[in-house]
Amino acid sequence: DVKVTQSSRYLVKRTGEKVFLECVQDMDHENMFWYRQDPGLGLRLIYFSYDVKMKEKGDIPEGYSVSREKKERFSLILESASTNQTSMYLCASSLGRMFGQYFGPGTRLLVL
Amino acid sequence: ILNVEQSPQSLHVQEGDSTNFTCSFPSSNFYALHWYRWETAKSPEALFVMTLNGDEKKKGRISATLNTKEGYSYLYIKGSQPEDSATYLCAFTNAGNMLTFGGGTRLMVKP
Questions:
Q1: A36 interaction partners in chain B (CB closer than 8 Å)
Q2: Which residues of B touch A59 (CB under 8 A)?
Q3: A44 reaches B (C-beta below 8 A)
Q4: Closest by Cβ to B43, choosing from A59, A99, A104
Q5: Each residue of A68-105: pLDDT tens digit?
Q6: Residue B99 sits at the chain A interface (C-beta within 8 Å)
Q7: Which helix (H) or strand (E) holds A32?
Q8: Measured between beta carbons, which residues in chain B are less than 8 angstroms from residue A45?
Q9: Cα distance between residue A107 and residue B6, in whole Å
Q10: Most buried among A32, B33, B69, B107, using CB within 10 Å?
Q11: Residue B10: how many CA atoms within 13 Å on its side-chain side?
């Protein structure tokens, strides 16, 4: 079974802090994704990566950056957290566009 | 940002009822349409990926159809059970590799 893990289930940070959300998958998937989920807005794509050191902006990349130094790990970085980044963050991976995505359990981030 | 819409937003049905909901998406540059099931306190789980106009997929009591020319997909659940209660998400991929999710249909099945 594919396993996608995220470093934290719950996280509380203060405005202005730098925040790292880590995601690791164990199935050698090429593609990895970061989403945020907010009530009434569904899942929105922040960034995705189709290979090591490659990244593409999704629909809402502002205020975020990503890092993919190794195939299995995709990190989401909030350089200076703001209260409007309070959300549920979901990581996913897939073999390719023709395949379904496997999601991690999510990280619920609260920025005070 | 691609426009992917799902209707209805929420649905209450009785156990044993059959139900269906809709996902509409842009009909140009189509590559694939995904359906996911998302139970509360769990991660979204892939149900189907469909790529060809006229595709039909089935998994137990759940099935889906695809019309790429007019830009819609239907998800059907036959004989709904309480364990079918979840949010059902569709996601559209275009030729540019962007995956855009719809807002989801929240299904609640009453025993």
A1: none
A2: 1, 98, 100
A3: yes
A4: A104
A5: 999 999 999 999 999 999 999 999 999 887 788 999 99
A6: yes
A7: strand A31-38
A8: 98-101
A9: 25
A10: A32
A11: 4
Q: Residue A22 pLDDT more than 80?
A: yes
**From B43, B93, B100, residue closest to A103, measured CB to CB:** B43
Instruction: Please report the pLDDT score of residue B1 as a whole number.
Output: 61
CA distance A106 to chain B (A): 7
Looking at the complex, report in whole angstroms how far the Cα of residue B78 sits from the nearest Cα belonging to chain A.
23
Return d(Cα B15, Cα B61) in angstroms, integer.
13
Q: Do A97 and B31 touch (CB under 8 A)?
A: yes
pLDDT at A1: 65
pLDDT tops 80 at residue A39: yes
> Which residues in chain A have their CB less than 8 angstroms from residue B104's CB?
42
Render each residue's pLDDT in chain B as its tens digit; 111 residues. Answer: 668 999 999 999 999 999 999 999 988 888 999 999 999 888 899 999 999 999 999 999 999 999 999 999 999 999 999 999 999 999 998 876 677 899 999 999 999
- Token couple for B102: 């719809």
* CB B21, CB B75: distance < 8 Å: yes
Structure tokens at A85: 């980044």
